[in-house]
Amino acid sequence: MISQATIDRLPLYFRTLRLVEDEKIPIISSDELGRRLDITPEQIRKDLATFGQFGRKGIGYDVRELKEKLANILGLQNNWRLAIVGVGHLGGALANYVNFASLGFSVVALLDINKNLIGTKVNDIPVNNVANMKSVIRKYNVDIGVITVPADEAQGVADLLVAAGIKGIWNFAPTKLSVPAEIPLVNEDLSIGLSALSYYMSQDLTEVY
Amino acid sequence: MISQATIDRLPLYFRTLRLVEDEKIPIISSDELGRRLDITPEQIRKDLATFGQFGRKGIGYDVRELKEKLANILGLQNNWRLAIVGVGHLGGALANYVNFASLGFSVVALLDINKNLIGTKVNDIPVNNVANMKSVIRKYNVDIGVITVPADEAQGVADLLVAAGIKGIWNFAPTKLSVPAEIPLVNEDLSIGLSALSYYMSQDLTEVY
To answer: Could you tell me the sign of the dihedral formed by the alpha carbons of B34, B39, B42, B48, in that order?
Structure first.
């Protein structure tokens, strides 16, 4: 059983290794990886050991090998194709978010119910009518549905995505969705990071006063 | 030492307890809380036990008491005031994100270097000139700086925020920032949740084929 926290650190390792590879560095130690990421070398060694034997004691990790292994573990080699449903502020921001491409994800379709948006483009991606969900998902070979509609519309959108044959759902609407057990669902809540910051800021205050 | 994963679950508990309180339910069991959140009752009891003795065996948690205790642990009673630096797609989305208000956070100021944006309003919040950072942070009593500028501008913005006396930084730019140790910094990376989804989708494929 791999912890969520470990899974969440893998893309950080992957992205750093790709930068290291760009710098033509063939071998990296857990100390140097830790320094670049602000994560302890012990944590990095423990995380990577979960997936097998990597690196050589006293030498380090083969950068390209570890990078490719991580890409495989994370499934990044699938180059997943995303459709964003709900082209409001958040949907528009995600359509323009550059970090996705750096991990092999691409946003290939946008959907909305707003007649004024349908037919326009955001970041060169066409906005389609939600009513055509099934044909859009097929036409653009969409793997992942991203839900950025208001909470009370989210379940309806999830049902449409599932009916259209989506393989996974990334939900930003602040509501609990019901989807078939075989469809992986990740809920994103931007206020969690902010609450963590509030927690750390409060701890500081406690220490000071 | 409280784990990051536990801290990340606390706002979910808090938000659910507030909904439960709105439903006039005075006592809730870890089973019911777990059902509403899709988290095991054992996990919930373990998380809450980290912070002391709550609830009564076989009866449950006092909803209002637990909610207030969690707000205190998370520092939400501070009603932190946010300034967003960089009013692009993501900054605009955050300025409109309703979940923050539900946890007591408020966005009180926006800053940008774009002359076309300065003086306009987004979600009724005025856009100020980054050059006036110090006076804006003081005028609006800003606690938290939110960085949504491109990676190569992020460190400069962080330095301005620190010089202006900010208490905490929430960074969305895909770069590692240097700030004084006494300023809590939380880095947000939207592609982490997406990578986790990719991981689960790949695991499913492995099982199927």
So the answer is: negative
Amino acid present at B33: L
Of B186, B194, B204, the CB nearest to A170: B194
Q: What is the pLDDT of residues A11-49, one digit of tens each?
A: 889 988 988 998 999 999 999 998 888 788 888 998 898
- Number of residues written out for chain A: 209
* pLDDT single digits (tens) B33-85: 988 887 888 889 988 988 877 777 778 999 999 999 999 999 999 999 999 99
Instruction: Please state, in angstroms and rounded to a whole number, the distance separating the CA atoms of residues B41 and B31.
Output: 5
Instruction: Specify the pLDDT at position A28.
Output: 95
> How does DSSP classify residue A202?
H
According to DSSP, residue A121 is labeled: E
Which A residues 176-205 touch B at CB under 8 Å? Answer: 176, 182, 184-186, 188-205
- CB-based contact, B106 to chain A, within 8 Å: no
CB within 8 Å of chain A, chain B residues 112-141:
none
Across the interface, of B36, B73, B102, the residue whose CB is closest to A199 is B73
Of residues B161, B157, B147, B143, the one with CA closest to residue B106? B143
Domains identified in chain A and CATH numbers: 4-73 (1.10.10.10), 79-191 (3.40.50.720)
Q: H helices of chain A, where?
A: 4-22, 30-37, 41-49, 63-74, 89-95, 98-101, 133-139, 151-163, 190-208
Within 8 A of A200 by CB-CB distance, chain B residues are: 168, 184, 186
Contact B186 A193 (CB under 8 A): yes
Give the C-alpha separation, B157 to B163, whole Å.
Answer: 10
Closest partner residue to A184 (CB to CB) among B167, B192, B201 is B201
